[in-house]
Design a protein that fits this description.
Layout: E1 3-5, H1 23-42, E2 48-55, E3 61-68, E4 73-76, E5 83-85, H2 91-111, H3 120-144, E6 152-158, H4 160-180, E7 207-209, H5 230-235
Antiparallel strand pairs: 1-7, 2-3, 2-6, 3-4, 4-5
Helix pairs in contact: 1-2, 1-4, 2-3, 3-4
Length: 236
Amino acid sequence: MVVSVSGPMDPVGEPARSGRLEPRRLVAAGLAALALVLTLVGCFFPFFNIEHRLSFDRSASVVLVVVQGAWDTQLIQPNDQPFTTSTAPVGIPLLIAAAILLAATIVCARAAGLRRPVTLDRWLSTIGSVFLAGVVITAVTLAFGRPVDGDSETTLTVGAGMWALFAAVVAAAGAAVMSHRVQDEEVPMSGDSAFAEMPTPKDGISITVLPPEPQPEVPDYSAFAPPPDSGAKERD
């Protein structure tokens, strides 16, 4: 195998483009964008509706409804104004997760056409999915950590915001998985499909593997073979 260096050295700072988009990175970018949209949608809808039915005696009961959202928690009592508290909001961590997912979407979309392997998209998609999952787990823990003293019957209903966040976690995890499934050997060096499986060296120099040279034809010495062309030898 003959290895030769062809063309000028590629600049280290700006990877060249292959002219063919990598489908797995495109899927990762789409899933990250979907997770971003679902995260933002979840910030504006309630997470849980928790209904506490308090029974102080056998004849009377009081219903207390707790509506938990991303920015505040409302306490709704019968014949009274709703009381709003903003303790331990999870809206700010959700916005941070959305910012990470936005960066992952941009990097995955740009990396889909790059020639050299890129690891930043994997890091961002993984960090975004793990961080978002942690925020959602925290929100669920806050919902189940509101005990009510006395004899009460509790009914919990999952709101549209939490369903959107559950779907966002699944989409973000899918983006992380798809970004990690991109192999370095699958990234083509150029638009030619013949070099699609050839890895790029770490020193940043493009290497071209030349095809084997054609072998000369073996002369046929059988009785029915035509005589060799003597004119070619005389011209030589």
